[in-house]
Write a structure and sequence with these properties.
single chain, 12 helices, 349 residues, mainly alpha
Amino acid sequence: MNWAKTEEVFTSLLVSPIIGFTCAGLLLLLAKRLIRRPELYRAPEGNKTPPPWIRGLLILTCTGVSFAHGSNDGQKGMGLIMLILVGILPGMFALNMDTNAGAIAQLAATSNSVIPVLQQQGRGTFLNSQSITDELSNFLKPTGEANDKTFAALAAKSRTIGDKLAGKTSFKQLSSDELSSLRTDMYLIAGTIGKLDNQKKLTDAKQEEVLISYKKQLDKVTKFIPNWVKFAVAIALGLGTMIGWKRIVVTVGEKIGKDHLTYAQGASAELVAMTTIGAADYFGLPVSTTHVLSSGVAGTMAANHSGLQTDTLRNILLAWVLTLPVCVLLGSATYAGSLYIVFNILSLK
């Protein structure tokens, strides 16, 4: 269990609603000082449409939230789908099968060219085949520290990749087992180089340039998502919003505060939500669009002295608190149950 990454995830999920609440409230107060347009601070009147400039503002902020939502929540969906595809169909999705012969040849050449650079850092350290994998795996743990063995293991793994790709013009020439093994080797190398760079262990500028270029080539082969997966996730998110939008809109617009949401409050909450989610996406942190947006609305209600509906806030808070542990328990129970069925009832080993 990577507890450092787990702590990072929990921290981002906990801090993002606080940021949404505080910043949305401050933005509303700033807007009241700078934009003296009374119609912006009134609640919608029945089915009456807002003035064109307010409608344009809301379309802009809604579009921003939608884009940010897709860039964060959409990534989760695509990641899960790829995880499943790689697990059950490694022969098709372990590596980017559309990689052309030139790119494969270049990757093989780079794998061989970095070996002298890494061996120099490894200072002649020798490792057996199992020690190579163990050394890189241990280094990638939160407590892992770089040493001569780390660079020696990198050199050995790079040689393995170069040998496996020698003379190959397509990944389709490799078996499923070979593809899975190659993907694992590439991930270990790319992850190790990335951590070495983050820890400032690549002190030589030329060495750093060569290894970072090597990492980018590896990432292009392993960190890919087919276009049909992107479209499928986008359509799923869109259909989900089209089907369930009303309950969400009513809760956010009417049930968080004691007064109906005004145009300014909605725009402030959405601007903060799109910015917060976009920043989280840039730093690779998972956040919840619903958490950030609903917290932003609550923040504008507090700043506007509109009052908050404690029952709704309590239900939202309970949903936040219970979601992660319930998902963990369900996931572990489903996995354990599946293993029991496969190995004990179906007797498949």
